[in-house]
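Subject: design request, 339 residues
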């Protein structure tokens, strides 16, 4: 099934109806969101959700995010009323690329929570995703629609590369917007300030401004058990090609490339446009304008996937300042370089 920029409203509606029907039948549908493509299943059905883990090759103790289409779907998923902080975050950032961690009700299957007492919930802003969820009539469990550990898919063709034949339907809604997964914030403790568990399109600075308090960011080296958010425990975002991060000038990058070549390796470089004429490598991937982190984030996974088709041994990637969206970009790059 394919939707082309929603030009044909009838085709759009037909696509929504077919996707919802498949989800109600407890099968899998890959669909676009404003972050990355998601692999959706009926989030209240253990049988349906287990198919996600099988299709992705995903460890079963890795929690999933439940996607809702309206606030009416939130209450039944929660064990207790939400906090004032959660209310503010919902008001300012939903629908959008923000996932919140709440105490889970008994209605949420343990296969969704990874055996934890909390549940991750998001209300996507993407029209197609919201319409599918509404039509299905249930919250949709939907991790990224890729084989576990690989770079997340931002286009339908990425999904086909990883999951063709493993899912009932792949809906082509074009390229996603943010290109990185949602920010995950833990609001499960009503007596404590929220914590960012995973950086994403909603920045730490934006959250602090909204709440009027300082918040903590979960460290990348925390103990990897009982993690409350997806994308924290296992190998993520990694191409098959080795990835090495390079902090510093173009000269530093060139020295690393030259050293790799001296050892017989073919090297690619992922750099911003201002460095494109300063670097010599076997392949060059231009990430975008260094001042436009939104564009860089939206194409990051595309580049990480493309390098595996370039007949190179190593990809050198320049680093970014870890403020604003740069924090989310570097979070993904650190994981890609340290599988």
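Subject: RE: design request

Done. Sequence follows.
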């Amino acid at each position: 099934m394919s939707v082309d920029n929603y030009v044909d409203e009838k085709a759009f509606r037909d696509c929504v109806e077919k996707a919802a029907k498949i989800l109600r039948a407890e099968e899998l549908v890959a669909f676009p969101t404003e972050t990355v493509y998601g692999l959706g299943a009926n989030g209240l059905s253990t049988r349906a959700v287990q198919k996600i883990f099988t299709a992705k090759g995903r460890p079963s103790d890795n929690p999933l995010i439940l996607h809702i289409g309206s606030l009416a779907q939130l209450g039944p998923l929660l064990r207790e009323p939400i906090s004032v902080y959660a209310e503010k975050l919902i008001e300012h950032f939903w629908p959008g690329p923000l996932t919140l961690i709440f105490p889970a009700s008994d209605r949420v299957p343990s296969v969704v929570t990874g055996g934890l007492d909390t549940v991750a919930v998001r209300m996507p802003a993407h029209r197609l995703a919201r319409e599918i969820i509404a039509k299905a009539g249930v919250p949709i469990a939907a991790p990224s629609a890729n084989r576990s550990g690989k770079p997340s898919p931002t286009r339908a063709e990425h999904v086909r590369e990883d999951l063709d034949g493993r899912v009932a339907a792949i809906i082509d809604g074009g390229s996603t917007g943010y290109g990185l997964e949602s920010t995950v914030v833990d609001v499960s403790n009503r007596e404590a300030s929220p914590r960012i568990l995973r950086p994403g399109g909603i920045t730490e600075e934006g959250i602090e401004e909204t709440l009027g308090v300082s918040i903590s960011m979960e460290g990348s080296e925390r103990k990897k058990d009982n993690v409350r958010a997806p994308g924290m425990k296992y190998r993520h975002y990694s191409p098959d090609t080795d990835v090495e991060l390079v902090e510093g000038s173009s000269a530093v990058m060139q020295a690393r490339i030259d050293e790799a070549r001296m050892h017989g390796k073919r090297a690619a470089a992922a750099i911003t446009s201002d460095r494109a004429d300063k670097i010599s490598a076997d392949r060059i991937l231009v990430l975008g304008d260094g001042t436009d982190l939104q564009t860089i984030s939206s194409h990051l996974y595309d580049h990480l996937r493309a390098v595996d088709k370039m007949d190179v041994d190593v990809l050198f990637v320049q680093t970014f300042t870890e403020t604003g969206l740069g924090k989310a970009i570097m979070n993904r790059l650190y994981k890609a370089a340290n599988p």
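Residues 242-337 form a domain with the Rossmann fold fold (CATH 3.40.50.11030).
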